Amino acid sequence: MKKITLLLLLASLTACTFPSKITTVNTSAENESEEISEEKINSTLENWHAAAANANFEDYFALMANDGVFIGTDATENWQNTAFREFSKPYFDKGKAWSFTTLERNIYTSENGQTAWFDELLDTQMGICRGSGVLEKVNKDWKIKHYVLSIAIPNEIVSEITATKKQTDSILILQLQKQY
Question: Is the pTM of this model over 0.70?
Answer without folding.
Answer: yes
